[in-house]
Amino acid sequence: MSLLIRNGHIITASDSYHADIYIENERIHSIGENLNEDADEIIDASGKVIFPGGIDPHVHLDMPFMGTFSSDDYASGTLAALHGGTTMVIDFILQTQGKSLYDALKTWRGRSDNNCFGDYSFHMAVTDFNENTRKEVRELINKEGITSFKTFMAYKGALMIDDGQMVQLMQEVRDQGGMVTVHATNGDIIDSLIAQHKSEGKLSPLYHYLSQPEITEAEASGRFCDMADYTGVPAYIVHLTCEGALNATRRAGKRNQKIFVETCIQYLLLDASLYEKDFEGAKWVMSPPLREKKDQEALWAGLNQGLVQVLGTDHCPFNWEQKLLGKDDFSKIPNGHPAIEHRMELLYSEGVNKGRISQNKFVEVTSTNAAKIFGMHPRKGCISVGSDADLVIFDPNEEHTISVDNHHMNVDYSGYEGWEVKGKCKHIILRGKHVIDNGIVKIEKGYGQFIKRDKVSKVV
Ligand code: URP
Ligand code: ZN
Ligand code: ZN
Q1: Strand, helix or coil at 454?
Q2: For position 160, which CATH number holds?
Q3: Which of 49, 100, 231, 322 has its CA 20 to 30 A from that of 84?
Q4: Probe ligand 1: pick from 150, 183, 287, max atoms within 8 Å of CB?
Q5: Which pLDDT belongs to residue 258?
Q6: Is-cis flag, bond preceding 205, omega within 30?
Q7: Looking at the domain assignment, is residue 335 inside a domain?
Q8: Which atom of ligand 1 is nearest to the CA of 238?
Q9: Residue 261 — φ and ψ, nearest 5°?
Q10: Has residue 393 been placed in a domain?
C-alpha cells in the first residue's frame, strides 16, 4: 500500500516548508520536492497545511465514574478524535482499591481492544500502592509498555492516595524509568467545602466551582512538585488550570527541576462565568473547574514560555440524563465534559489565527511534546522519514460551526455550541492509511492499535 501527498505545506514543531510526502505501508518513506513515485493513491494537498496527527494524552472513554460510565466508548471516542485530527489517545486505567493493577489492565483492555478506530495507549492510575502494586509497576513498564502512572490527590475513598503512598510510588517509578502524573488538587479541603456548601443548602453547579478554589490546586501542585523533587522522579501535572498552580511549577523550575505540564482546551477558552447559568452550568462541571480570565492569560503565556508543554482535553463526556443525577446536589453531577473532537480545530482557530501561538507551537503542544514525554518519539508526533505516517491535511480557510447537530461524539450536547471555527481537518492518515476522507470514514473499528511506549525521556 502506498500513498503520495503532493504540494502540501508541512508544519512540524520546528519547521515549515513545501514538500511532497511518499508513504509506503505504515511509514513515511520519503519527503521532498516533486517526488516522482508511483503510488496506489495520490492526494493533492495544494492550499492545505500538513501536521503530524494529534496526540491527546488525557481522555476517559467508557470509564466507570461517579455511578455511571462516560458516554463515549472506545469506538465512538477514537472515531470522533480522528474526525478532529487526533490520531492517538492515551486513556486511563483505574485500579480498584483492594485489587491489582493487572486486574484493572485486563478489564480496560477488554473494553478497548479491537474496538478503537484510532491508536491508543494507557496511563495506569494507582489508587492503592502496596508491595504487590510495586511489583506490578515494574512489569507494566518493562513488559506492557505502560510507562506512566497517574495519581489522584483528590476523590478520597475512591481514587486518592496519601502522600506516603505517593512518595513510595515515585521512588519505584523513578527506579524503573517511568513517569508519575497527577490530578493535583487538595481533596481534603475540597471535601470540607463541599460539605459546608451542602449544609448551607447551596446545591447548584456554581458551588462545584466554589468548592474548588484556586488555592486547592496551587497547594497540591506545589506539594506534588516538592515530592517529585525529593524523589527525583520525572513528573507531569495533568489538566492544570490556574495561575497559582502554574506558579508552583515555575518555582520548581527555579530550582532546576523539570515538571511537565498539561492544560486542556477548555481552560484556555472557557471561564467560570458559565457556572452562573443555573443547572445548565452542569455541562461544564469538571474537576478542576473552569477558572478566571486572568488564568486563561497565564496559560496562554505558559504555552509560549514553555512552562506548559501539552494540550489535552480530559474528554469525559456524559449525556444530559447523566448530568441530571446531580440536579438537586452539585456533588452528584458526573464530572467531565466532551472535547476530544475539537481540541485541534479550536486551538488552531483561537490560538494560531488570533496570533496567540505560532503554527509550530500548535504542533508542539498538540502532538510532538506528548510523543516525546510519553515515550513514543520519533515513531509518533513528527513528520520524518521512518516515522508512522500519522498526518492531518488541514484546510486553514474552511469555516464551520461547532454543534451537537454535526459532531461525532456520543453525547447529546456540545460545550462549544455555536462556536465559529476557521480551519478544518480534511484528510486524516493513520499509519499510512487514508482513514478519513473529507468526513467519510474509510476504516472499520479495530484498525486502531495499542501502542507500547518506551521508558520516558527528559528531552522536552
Ligand atoms: O472532571 C473530570 N476531570 N473528570 C474526569 C476525571 C478527572 O479528574 O480527570
Ligand atoms: Zn483529573
Ligand atoms: Zn481526567
Answers
A1: coil
A2: 3.20.20.140
A3: 322
A4: 287
A5: 84
A6: no
A7: yes
A8: 9
A9: -130, 135
A10: no
Closest atom of ligand 1 relative to the 336 alpha carbon: 1
The residue range of the domain holding 165 is: 53-379
Locus of grid cell 475539537: 342
Average pLDDT of the segment spanning 84-102:
98
Q: Using CB atoms within 10 A of its CB, is residue 178 exposed (0-12), middle (13-18) or buried (19+)?
A: buried
pLDDT at 356: 98
- Statement: residue 460 has pLDDT above 70: no
The count of structural domains within the chain is 1
Q: Specify the DSSP class assigned to residue 334.
A: P
CA 368 to chain centroid: 13
State the average pLDDT for the chain. 97
Taking the CA atoms of 52, 180, 127 and 187 in sequence, report the sign of the dihedral they define.
negative
Q: How distant, in Å, are the alpha carbons of 160, 220, 259 from that of 248? A: 21, 9, 10
pLDDT in tens, 179-218: 999 999 999 999 999 999 999 999 999 999 999 999 999 9
User: Strands (DSSP E) along 86-227, which ranges?
Assistant: 86-94, 119-125, 148-152, 179-183
Condensed to tens digits (0 to 9), the pLDDT of residues 47-58 reads: 999 999 999 999
Contact partners, residue 207, CB within 8 Å, separation at least 6: 194, 197, 198, 330
Q: Helix, strand, or coil here: 135? A: helix
Nearest ligand to the C-alpha of residue 184? 2
For ligand 1, which residues put their CB under 6 angstroms from it? 60, 183, 286-287, 314, 316, 335-336
Residue count of the chain, please give it: 460
pLDDT at 458 over 60: no
Residues with CB under 5 A from ligand 3 (ion): 314
- The answer to whether residue 278 is domain-embedded is yes
Pair type for strands 41-44 and 2-11? parallel
First to last CA, the chain: 34
> 249: number of CA atoms within 13 Å, CB side?
28
> What is the distance between the alpha carbons of residues 414 and 417, in angstroms, rounded to a whole number?
5
Nearest ligand atom owner, CA of 217: 2
Residue 343 lies inside a defined structural domain of this protein: yes
Four-residue CA torsion sign, 363, 149, 288, 60: positive
Which ligand 1 atom lies nearest to the CA of residue 287?
A: 1
Inter-residue contact 363 to 322 (CB < 8 Å): no
In the predicted model, is pLDDT for residue 1 greater than 70? yes
